[in-house]
Amino acid sequence: MQHRQTSRRQFLKTTVAASGALAWGVHTWPSGRTLAQSPNEKLNVASIGVSNRAGANLEGVSSENIVALCDIDEQFLSQAGEKFKQARCYEDFRVLLDKEAKNLDAVVVSTPDHTHAPAAAAALRLGKHVYCEKPLAHTVYEARKLAELAKENKCVTQMGTQIHAGENYRQVVELIRAGAIGPVREVHVWVNVNYSGAKFTTGAPAPSHVNWDLWLGPAKERPYSEGVHPFNWRRFWDYGTGGLGDFGCHYMDLVHWALDLRHPTSCRAEGPEVDAVSTPAWCIVNYEYPARGDQPPMRLNWYDGGKKPEILETLKRADGSRLDWGSGQLFIGDKGMIISDYGRHVLLPEDRFTDYQRPEPSIPRSIGHHQEWINACKTGGATTCNFDYSGALTEAVLLGTVAYRSGQALEWDAKNLKATNAPDAERFVHKEYRKGWTL
Predict the structure, then answer these.
(1) What is the pLDDT of residue 15?
(2) Which of 124, 158, 258, 394 is the right S-S partner for 373, CB 3.0 to 4.6 Å?
(3) CATH number given to 2-164+367-386
(4) Closest by alpha carbon to 55, among 111, 122, 113, 116?
């Protein structure tokens, strides 16, 4: 308990200093309320999405005043409403934000990917702090736009990459930054997940408890399709971005964080023949990043759907056991390697690091991914996955889907969001919204 309290104080001190804000005083919150600026005050929060992953996010902010809930599924909304009886319930987030604007300080967005950006952008334009589930957006352009809106409106933001708060990721970052394996020129990231086989069905009406038109949101108007809601939408290009979109922001996060990455200069992808409806059964993506300060240019290689880097077949621990983990990251440096996943890591070759003195912790230990955001909203502090950082991460992740769907190796102009050698790839950088929906 003493360690937790110390870490919490250290985190608050660090984040407030980083933002140039005072930790205490009088603070006018986005709702217009003037309150003592203290972690003891409660935010007025709206949750857009209330079940499954959204339910976990709602639980993560349940210490605050949950004043409004929104979901297109009446059953999910009713269940959440029973738990948060004081909250007013809506099925359309546009109506919620219009009616509750003066009552809100912050908004949690946990909808399917294709409605992340419209909901988050609307909240940011109202000056509300936003926590948005990963991936931050459905398109590269949306991710850039959300980062710009957060900066313009001075909002505290956090993308829901909850693993970022873990001890293991911090230890890996500290090792890389301390030069444990020397300059890193290549990283392999693999995730054993497959989101494929999506097909639209027609004929069956939407269940009475599902507002299908609102579920579609900005996406192309289509008849109700069985099985898309509440999870299999991840398999459809119209609503998700497959394994890369779902897990890239978790596993590539560690690489971006440890190596100070932002925008790749090129990207190429391979996989099965592109399907207009379904995301692929597997995909391999190669990203090239430029030098950063004294760090050399490097390549990030992504694999999903059971594909893995060949080098894994050669890796063994000191006891002879293999390191062919189901999912993970492999950092290859001039002086060694680190293999990692969500909760573990190993310095390789192990015999070389037998007497290695690990660096002292230099990154404040997290008080919890949701709590970081909550406290920063109250104190004007910083968050570790704000939309500037997570927007660039999401752009890189989704650029892989652009390369795959366009079938071209892209020379990427990140400043202008253009593939300079493949102008026809632009149709996958963003999309047209259905009438009535805006970014």
Answers:
(1) 38
(2) 158
(3) 3.40.50.720
(4) 111
| Calpha distance 282→193 (Å, rounded) | 8
Q: d(Cα 47, Cα 53) in Å, to the nearest integer?
A: 12
The encoded tokens of residue 40 equal 């003891």
Q: Which amino acid is at 316?
A: K
Domain ranges (residues) in the chain: 2-164+367-386
Return the beta strands (E) in 79-235 as ranges. 88-90, 106-109, 129-133, 157-160, 184-191
Considering Cα of 372, then 373, then 374, then 378, what sign does the dihedral take?
positive
For residue 158, the model assigns a pLDDT of: 98
Strand 184-191 to strand 298-304: parallel, antiparallel, or no bridges (unpaired)?
Answer: parallel
Going by C-alpha positions, the residue among 429, 419, 438 that lies closest to residue 394 is 429
Give pLDDT, residue 321. 92
Q: Which two tokens stand for residue 338?
A: 């680190």
Angle, alpha carbons 203-208-214 (nearest 5°): 85
Per-residue model confidence (pLDDT) at position 106:
98
Backbone angles phi, psi at 197, to 5 degrees: 80, 20
Stated as kind and residue range, the H or E segment containing 300 is strand 298-304
Given a cut of 70, the residues of the chain with pLDDT beneath it are 1-29, 32-39
Question: What local confidence, expressed as pLDDT, does residue 29 receive?
Answer: 63
pLDDT of residue 137: 98
How far, in Å, CA of 200 to CA of 238, rounded?
Answer: 11
**Prior bond to 223 cis, omega within 30?**
no
Residues 250 and 175: their CA atoms lie apart, in Å, by 19
- pTM for this prediction: 0.92
